[in-house]
Amino acid sequence: MILYIYDNAIFLFNYTKGLMKKEKRFFMIPYKDINRDSGVVEYFYGEDYINVRFQTGSVYTYSYGVAGRENVERMKVLADRGDGLNAFINTSVKFLYDK
C-alpha cells in the first residue's frame, strides 16, 4: 500500500492481484449542526474552496472559480458556526460545485 497526502486528501494506492486500486479520503471537520436538521456532516476548507460531505456520503467542492468568492467565504463562516450551511447551499449554490 502506498499513502500519498495532497492538499486536504489522502490517496491510498493498494495493489491487489496485480491491480491498483486508488481511494481518496478527505480530512474533514465534523459539522456541529446546532439544530440537528442539516444534511451536512463534515467540511474542510482551504484558501479558495470548501469541501462539504453530506449525509449521503457525497463530497462536493465549492470553489471561488465556480461558486464565487463571496459564496465560498459565506459557506466557511456558516460551517464554522455549525448552523445554516445546508440551507445556504440549497438556496444559493446548490449546482455551483466543481465538476
Protein architecture, described:
The protein is α+β, with helices and mostly antiparallel strands. It has helices at 64-67, 69-81, 85-93; strands spanning 2-6, 9-16, 19-26, 29-30, 40-45, 49-54, 59-63. The chain is globular. The model has no long low-confidence stretch (mean pLDDT 87).
* Rounded radius of gyration (Å): 15 Å
Number of helices: 3
Major sheet details: 4 strands, antiparallel
Q: Quote the distance from N terminus to C terminus.
A: 28 Å
Give a quick set of tags describing it.
99 residues, 4-stranded antiparallel beta sheet, 7 strands
Quick description:
With 99 residues, the protein is of the alpha+beta class. The protein has three helices and seven strands.
Topology:
Elements: E1 2-6, E2 9-16, E3 19-26, E4 29-30, E5 40-45, E6 49-54, E7 59-63, H1 64-67, H2 69-81, H3 85-93
Helix pairs in contact: 2-3
